[in-house]
Each structure stands twice: as structure tokens, then as C-alpha cells.
What we know:
Blueprint: H1 2-25, E1 42-47, H2 50-53, E2 72-78, E3 84-85, E4 88-89, H3 109-113, E5 122-128, H4 133-137, H5 142-153, E6 160-164, H6 177-194, E7 199-205, H7 212-218, E8 227-232, H8 241-248, E9 252-257, E10 261-262, H9 266-269, E11 272-273, E12 275-276, H10 280-300, E13 305-311, E14 330-331, H11 338-348, E15 353-354, H12 360-364
Helix pairs in contact: 5-6, 10-11
Amino acid sequence: MKNLMFIISLTIVFSCQNSSQKNTSIPETQTRAKFEPEDGKCILFVGQELEAIGGLEEWNDGYFDHFPAPGGFTMYTDFSPGDTMFGYVLKGLDGVFSTDRWGDYPSNMSLQLADEDFKNSALAIGLWLVNHEKEVAKGEQDVLINRMGEWLKTLGNRPVFLRIGYEFSGPWNNYDREHYLIAYKRIKDKFDEMGVNNVAYVWQSHGSDEPLELLESWYPGDEYVDWCGYSFFSRFQEANMIEFAKKHQKPVFIAEATPTISTETTHKNGKTKETILSNPEQAKEAYEKWFIPFFKTINDHPDVVKAVSYINCHWKSHPMWVDNPTFQDVDARLQTSEFMAEKWATETGKDKYLKASPQLFDYLWGQ
Length: 367
């Protein structure tokens, strides 16, 4: 009897150990962040306004009209009612329900979301809080938060990547750190209370000259951040977000990227070299000095960089960027360069880049 009991005990122990081993292996596929693809995969987004993206009856010479539909598209809106930008008075949630133009080319997410060409692409939203982060933190913009939350729920299972107060560290935004952190948390907390579950929260820095200590001081906390993000423009070598994200075990979204080539004075005045992709010589220089490092960054970090958004923009033609030293001499439209369009199609045609498909949403939801 004792031998029998001993055998039974061993059987129970090994059974529990095996069960435990099986259980510990299961979460490996479940510990990824919200909408994070598996290692080696990267969601391809394109932005950032109607002309640049195209794919619509009126706006028909953008990225969607020359390349396969990407896995997502990037647009912008705001919680900054009353502010004036290039003669346009913001009303809050601009570019969501109506066609609005605040110095960039027109934006209107509702047109894209209703269009058949966009039905299998995720949505990334840059949410502008400039000058109003204190009001958001104090609850004075809860009407806008509630309205946005209810709208997000109408999008069904379409994954949304929400960049709250994007480029928080950029000196041009001049965010108050204390109020920014409270505002960021308030927005997520309110959406959680409302039952908004189709949103991944992206915490995005401006991407250069950012010591790790600075990033830590602006970090809302692991429980409030699904993805870390940063911008990939000039001086991209100075970015520390990938290292920061690894420390916090978060995937990285290169949420804004466009070819801007640094000069000897860029670190002083922000001025970048003229880069017009329709100019063959400038396209080749951009490929060597920006596109190759951009793709290398993605390829060197297959377990971290899981989403990128290319801004396919005719920057120099927009009032917002005419006086901006970084973008005033840039035309990043890939379709204007046969050389660059071919290079781009070859690289992003690889299996690692996730584009629009009927299966994409289920895959990102982990189904």
C-alpha cells in the first residue's frame, strides 16, 4: 500500500509539473502588447492627410493609389478647441467627422473609414493636446473625451493606435510635464470606464536628443502604455526609445517617418538638406542617407520595432511647413520617384511587412 501511495504521489507531482510547464508556455503568445504582431513582423502604416494617403474619389494621387493598401493609415485630431492655426479655428476633434484644414492638407477620417479601400487597414491617431493639457488634466475637456470614446466604439474591431500628446518631449509643443502625465492617464482611464477596448495606447517622443533619464521622467507607467513610439526624422541616430522600450518590455512604433537629411547645422537650427524625391539625384541621396538606415533600424530590431508609419507628404507645399526648417524643402511622395518607388516596393513587399488584408484585424486581435 505504501508503495502504491508513493507511486500515486509521484504521478500527481509529475502531472502537476507537466501541467505547470504547459501553462507557462501558453502565455508566451499572450504576453504581447495590444495589437502587437509576432517577432519579425511589422505593421506598415502611411500618413498623414488626405492628399498624402489618397485612395478616395477626390484625393486620388496618394500612397493608396500607387502601392498596395498598407496595414494602417495615420491621421490627426485634437483636444485644443479655440486655438487658431493658419487662420483655422480649432473646435476639438477636428478631422474626425468633417473635412478640416489647419495648415496641413485637408483631413477627414470619416471619409476614409467609410471607403471600401480602407476597410482592412488599422487606424493610427495623433491626438494633439498642445496648450490644453492642463484643461484635460482637470477634467475640463471631458466632453471631448466622451465624444471621442463613443466614436471609437463605433469602429468595431478595427484596431486603433492612439498617440496621446504625441512628441511630448518636443520643445515646439512646450507641454507641461505634470499636466501632460495627468492628462494622458485621464484619457485612458475615461476610455476604460466607457468600455473602449479597440485602442492600443502609444506613448511617442520626438526621437532625438532624449536621454533615458528624460524619457523616464515623462513615462506614464507600464499600465498606461501599450506601445512606445518615436519619430524618425533627422538626427535619428540620437534616439534612445528602442533601448527604453526594451527595458520596459514594450514594442516600438516608429510613428512618424519621412526622409530628412541632416547637415552640419541641423543640431543647431533644425535645417535639413533639400530632399525632393522627384529629383533623381536627391532621391538616391535620400535612399543612401535615410531610407537604408530606416530599414536597418527595423531589421536590426525584429523583436521590438513592430510598426512604422511613413509620411508620404509633399511637405514644402503646405502652409504649416513653409517656415519649418526641417520640412520646408522636402517632398517625400514615393510615387514621384521611379527609383524610390521600386526600392520601397521591394523592401515593403517582404513578408515581414503587414499590409491590409481580410485577416489582418483578427491576427492583430490574436484570433
